[in-house]
Specification:
It is a single chain. The protein has 16 helices and six strands. It is mainly alpha-helical. The chain has a three-stranded antiparallel β-sheet. Strands 4-6-5 form a three-stranded antiparallel β-sheet. The longest helix has 52 residues. It starts with a helix and ends with a strand.
C-alpha cells in the first residue's frame, strides 16, 4: 500500500474523510451531503436553502425511525459539520452577500465515493483499463522523445496500422465490438467522468492553499520590495502559473472548444442510446454541462484570488508610500522653518513624557432612563362586530417546495419554462403560489423574464371557479454561482 503505520495513525486521527466515516451520524452525512453536493452537483447553496432541505430530511427520518433519532436542529448539524474540527462543509460569504453559503469539501466526495464502491459490482471490466494504461505509457514515452527520427518511426507505424484497418474494412472484414467490451468501456467512462467532476473541488481548494501561502510570504517578507515582486508576483497570474493552474487551464481550454464540445455531445448521445449497455447512467447525459459549471466556478475562484492578491499587495505598497511621503514632507517643512534662522540647535517636541491611563472604574456607570407612567384606568372596551374566521383563511406558500420542484425538473435538462413546470406541478394555492414562483431566488437556478412574450396561466380556486393570468414568459435555467 505504500503508507507507513504512523501515517495511517495520523490519518485516522486527523483526516476529515476518516472522521466522517467514524461519526455517529455518518449515514445522515453521507446520504444528505452526497445527494446535494455530489449527485445534484450543487457547488454553492445558501444557508437558508440548505437548512430547509436538511430540516425536511430530519423530519422524515424522525417520523420513520422514531422521534428523537436526530434530536438536534438542522442549523445545529450544519454548524457542527462546518466547524474547524470536522471540516466537512466550507462556510463562506460570497462577494456582495450577507448570507452564509455552504459547499462540500473534497474530503466529503472522497468518503461518498469510497462508500459507493463498497457494494459488489455485477460486472468488473479490466480490458479497457489495460488499454488505457498502455496508451498512457505510449503518450509519455513518445511525448518526451526528442529524437525526430524516433517520432517519425512511431507515426509511420501508427499510420501503417490505420491503413491496414482501412483495407480490412474495405474488404468487408468489419469487426464489431461485443457487448462485454462496450459495457467494460462504458463503466470506465462513467467512473472517470464522475471522478473528474469531483476533482474540481480539490483543485479549487489547492488554489486557495496557494493563495494563502503567497499571503504568508508577503506578510513575513524581510527583503526589499523589488525582490518580493521578482520572487512572488512577477505577474498577476502567479496562481494560474502553478502546476495545478496550468493543468486546469489546459483542461478548461479543451472543454471550451466548440468543435470538441459538439463532437463530445455527438459521441455521448450515440453511446447513451446503445441497447447493449442496458440501463445507462442518467448523469452521463449532462455530464459535460456539470463539467462546465464546475470549471467556471473554479475559474471564477482563480480570478477572485488573483484580484484579491493584487489588491493586498497594492494596499501594502500604498501604506508604505504614504508613510514615506509624510516623513519627507515633515523634513521639508522643518527645513523651511529653519532656513532663515541661521545655525540653530535642532529641537523636537514630545506629546508627553508618560502615557495617559484611564482606569475602568473612572468611567460612569450605566443609568437607566426614566420610565413614563401609563394610566389605563379610563380605557373602555370597544364593541365591534369582527369576523374572526378570516384569521384562519390565510394562505402560506412554501417557496422551498416550489424551488425543489424547479431543481428536480432541471436535473435532466438545462432550462424549463414555467408553463411546462405547471403541467406536472399544477397551481394549488391560487395567485399567491404563482407569485411565489416569480419571486424564487435559489443558488441552483436563474429566473429569466421575457417581456416580449406573453403567456397565459390558468388554475381553479378553492370555490371551483376557473381563474387565469396573463404574464411575461418565465424560464428557469440551471445557474452557475460565482
Amino acid at each position: 500500500m505504500g503508507v507507513e503505520f504512523d501515517q495511517l495513525d495520523a490519518l485516522r486521527r486527523h483526516h476529515p474523510a476518516w472522521r466522517l466515516l467514524c461519526a455517529d451520524n455518518a449515514p445522515l452525512l453521507l446520504y444528505f451531503l452526497g445527494t446535494v453536493f455530489v449527485t445534484e452537483n450543487v457547488r454553492s447553496i445558501s444557508a437558508t436553502a440548505l437548512v430547509a432541505r436538511l430540516d425536511d430530511e430530519l423530519y422524515e427520518l424522525n417520523r420513520r425511525l422514531g422521534e428523537g433519532s436526530y434530536p438536534r436542529s438542522a442549523r445545529a448539524y450544519l454548524d457542527e459539520w462546518a466547524s474547524a474540527s470536522n471540516g466537512w462543509l466550507r462556510k463562506y460569504y460570497p462577494s456582495g452577500s450577507d448570507e452564509a453559503h455552504f459547499d462540500a469539501t473534497p474530503d466529503v466526495e472522497k468518503a461518498v465515493g469510497w462508500v459507493a464502491g463498497l457494494p459488489g459490482r455485477a460486472f468488473v471490466g479490466t480490458e479497457s483499463r489495460l488499454n488505457t494504461v498502455f496508451e498512457l505509457l505510449r503518450q509519455m514515452v513518445y511525448g518526451a522523445e526528442s529524437d525526430p527520427e524516433a517520432r517519425i518511426a512511431e507515426l509511420e507505424r501508427r499510420r501503417q496500422e490505420i491503413d491496414t484497418e482501412i483495407a480490412r474494412v474495405r474488404a468487408g472484414d468489419l469487426r464489431i465490438m461485443d457487448p462485454t467490451g462496450l459495457r467494460d468501456r462504458y463503466q470506465q467512462l462513467s467512473t472517470t467522468a464522475r471522478d473528474l467532476l469531483s476533482d474540481f473541488r480539490e483543485v479549487e481548494r489547492n488554489f486557495r492553499g496557494l493563495d494563502r501561502q503567497l499571503r504568508e510570504q508577503i506578510a513575513g517578507w524581510g527583503g526589499t520590495k523589488g525582490e518580493l515582486l521578482d520572487d512572488v508576483l512577477g505577474s498577476r497570474t502567479s496562481i494560474a502559473d502553478s502546476d495545478q493552474g496550468r493543468s486546469f487551464h489546459a483542461f478548461y481550454d479543451f472543454l471550451l472548444s466548440q468543435e470538441r464540445q459538439d463532437r463530445f455531445v455527438e459521441l455521448l448521445d450515440r453511446v447513451q442510446s446503445m441497447p447493449e449497455l442496458g440501463t445507462a447512467d442518467p448523469r452521463m447525459r449532462h455530464i459535460h454541462h456539470d463539467w462546465l459549471a464546475a470549471g467556471e466556478r473554479t475559474q471564477a475562484t482563480v480570478r477572485l484570488l488573483s484580484e484579491q492578491l493584487r489588491r493586498f499587495l497594492d494596499d501594502q505598497v500604498w501604506l508604505e508610500n504614504r508613510r514615506v511621503i509624510d516623513l519627507l514632507r515633515g523634513i521639508e517643512a522643518t527645513a523651511l522653518r529653519l532656513r532663515d534662522h541661521g545655525q540653530v540647535a535642532v529641537r523636537f517636541e514630545m506629546d508627553g513624557a508618560a502615557p495617559v491611563v484611564v482606569l475602568p472604574m473612572e468611567r460612569p456607570l450605566y443609568r437607566p432612563s426614566a420610565r413614563a407612567a401609563i394610566d389605563s384606568t379610563d380605557v373602555v372596551l370597544g364593541e365591534a362586530d369582527v369576523d374572526t374566521s378570516l384569521l384562519f383563511t390565510q394562505v402560506h406558500v412554501d417557496r422551498e417546495r416550489l424551488a425543489r420542484g424547479v431543481r428536480q425538473a432541471l436535473q435532466s435538462r438545462d432550462q424549463v419554462a414555467l408553463t411546462e413546470l405547471l403541467v406536472t406541478h399544477p397551481v394549488e394555492q391560487g395567485l399567491a403560489e404563482l407569485v411565489g414562483y416569480l419571486s424564487l431566488e435559489d443558488a441552483g437556478f436563474d429566473v429569466t423574464f421575457d417581456e416580449a412574450v406573453r403567456t397565459r396561466v390558468g388554475w381553479v380556486d378553492a370555490a371551483g371557479v376557473e381563474r387565469a393570468a396573463t404574464m411575461p414568459a418565465v424560464t428557469f435555467s440551471r445557474g452557475v454561482s460565482p
